Amino acid sequence: QYEPVAEIGVGAYGTVYKARDLQSGKFVALKNVRVQTTENGLPLSTVREVALLKRLEHFDHPNIVRLMDVCATTRTERETKVTLVFEHVDQDLKTYLDKAPAPGLPLDTIKDLMRQFLRGLDFLHSNCIVHRDLKPENILVTSSGQVKLADFGLARIYSCQMALTPVVVTLWYRAPEVLLQSTYATPVDMWSVGCIFAEMFRRK
Q1: What are the recorded GO MF terms, alphabetically (predicted)?
Q2: Could you give the number of structural domains in the chain?
Q3: What is the pTM assigned to this prediction?
Q4: Annotated binding site
Q5: Which residue is catalytic, options 92, 98, 122, 133?
């Protein structure tokens, strides 16, 4: 149903592709996540997480990237590939900032981006979701300037694989509680918000 067109990026948890939906002809983003299976099938935590993402889809929040489909295929007896199909957005905030001509984004643009960013984050927190990995690469910006948060709520899916392979992730935006692996809640996301807000001004 989905035909990969180009590779968008490679992360610690797999590859993200730009793909074409063969039924509608529209572009989507495919994210492949490998999860360890048990004798009972997919781990309950994975099932719960995907169910949560599907539930959020029904709200159709303007500042949250839409999960459109979920596909699961068995690779081995111990591993299943879960493919998450999201709406496709051409650029992330990092690319958007890099494209901005000197001396940087106008103040009104920064205010608008932050307003949308915080609306999306407030929606996640209101639904008991802590993002835990906010960074410019996980904030998408459409050609019309609409902000959409991505890669939220996937940490528990990823945790199955993290125990198996060395994982290199971006640490610059993470709160001390996350780095120290201590208990934490929604305030850790606000630490990341402050880092990203400063980067919009400083462009670094």
Answers
A1: ATP binding; cyclin binding; cyclin-dependent protein serine/threonine kinase activity
A2: 2
A3: 0.80
A4: 31
A5: 133
Domain assignment of residue 80, yes or no:
yes
> Could you report the per-residue pLDDT of 96-140, keeping only the tens digit for each?
999 998 888 999 999 999 999 999 999 988 887 778 788 999 899
| CB neighbours of residue 155 within 10 Å | 17
- Which of 40, 68, 89 lies at the terminal end of a domain, its last residue? 89
CA gap 199, 184 in Å, rounded: 24
Residues 11-29 as b or e (16 or more Cβ within 10 Å = b): bebbebbbbbbeeeeebbb
Residue 133 designated active-site:
yes
Annotated binding site for ATP: 31
For position 127, which CATH number holds?
1.10.510.10
